[in-house]
Amino acid sequence: MPFQQNAPALPSHRRRSQRLRGVLGALWTGAGILLLLFTFAKLGSEVLEGETRSFDMALLRAFQALRTEHPWVTDTMRDLSGLGSTVVLVLFTAITAGYLALVKERAIAILVAAATLGSGAMVEILKLVFDRFRPAAAYAAIVVPGLSFPSGHATLSAIVFLTLGALASSSRKRNVERAYIMGVAATMTLLVGLSRAALGVHWATDVLAGWVFGALWAAVCLLIVRKMTAPAHGSQESPQTPDSGVCDASPLCDVVQTDRAVGTTLHSP
Fold it and tell me: Looking at domain 20-227, which CATH architecture does it have?
C-alpha cells in the first residue's frame, strides 16, 4: 500500500534549544547595544570637554602630510568618500527595499527604508546638539559646509552597509559565507569613514562617533527584524536545515533549495 512520508516534527528538546539560542542571541545583542550607547555618550562627552583635541589635531596633521607627500591619496579618498554619499546610500536602500517588497517582506522593506531616512534626520539633530565646527579649511583637501559631529558619511554608511550585510548573510547557511558578507560590509563602512578623516573634512573623533552610532542604529533595527521574523512561541514549524529544506525566519528566506522534496511515496513490493 502506498503512503505519504511527511517531514518529521521537530523534537521538543530541539525546539527548546532553539528558543534558548534565540534568547541568548537577544541578550548578547542587547548588551552590545548598551555598550555602543555608552561608548557614543562617553565619546561625545570627551569631545564637548575638549579632551580629544590633541588626538584630533595629531591625526589631522598626519593626514595632511600624507596627502602632500602622496597626491594620489586625495583622489583615492575622494572616490571612497563617494560610496557614503546620500545618492549612493539611498540607491542601495531603494534596491534592497524593492527586493524585500518583491518577495513579500513588505514590513521589513518599510523598516529598512524608514531606518535610513530616520537616521539621516537623527544625524542632523545630533550635529545641532554638539554644534562642533569642522577642521579649518587649511587642513582640508576639499571644503565642506555644515557641522561636524558625528560624521554623516560614517554614520549612514555604517547603518546601510551593516544592515544590508546582516540581511544578506541571514540567507546563507555556511559560516564562511556569512563572515565574508559581513566582512565586506564592515570594510566598506571603514573605508568611507577613513576617507572623511583623510580628506580633512572631519575630525577623527567625528568618524569614530559616526561608526559607533551607525552600528548602534543598525543593531536596533536588526533586533526589530529578528523580532518580526521570529516564529510564534510554541510554533511547531522547524527552521531551515539541510535535511528538512524548510525555510527559516530570515528576511531573505525565499532563497530556497531548488531540489526540495515535496514528499516521498513508497510502494510495497
Answer: Up-down Bundle (1.20)
Pairing mode of beta strands 3-5, 264-266: antiparallel
User: Nearest Cα to 45, choosing from 167, 189, 178, 212?
Assistant: 212
| Mean pLDDT on 171-178 | 84
Q: Which cell numbers in the block locate residue 141? A: 583637501
Q: Is 156 within 8 Å of 196 (Cβ atoms)?
A: no
**What DSSP designation does 137 have?**
G
Nearest residue to 79 via CA among 160, 165, 196, 186: 196
β partners of residue 3: 266
Q: Is 19 helix (H, G, I), strand (E, B) or coil?
A: helix
pTM: 0.75
Tell me the three cell numbers of residue 155.
554614520
Q: Is 141 exposed, middle or buried (0-12, 13-18, 19+ CB in 10 A)?
A: buried
CA dihedral (239, 181, 224, 229) in degrees, to 10, reads: -20
Phi, psi of 225 (to 5 degrees): -60, -45
- The Cα 116–Cα 252 span in angstroms is 19
Q: Return the domain boundaries, the chain.
A: 20-227
Contacts of 192 (CB under 8 A, 6+ apart): 80, 81, 83, 84, 153, 154, 157
Residues 91-122: pLDDT tens digits? Answer: 989 998 888 888 888 888 888 888 888 888 89
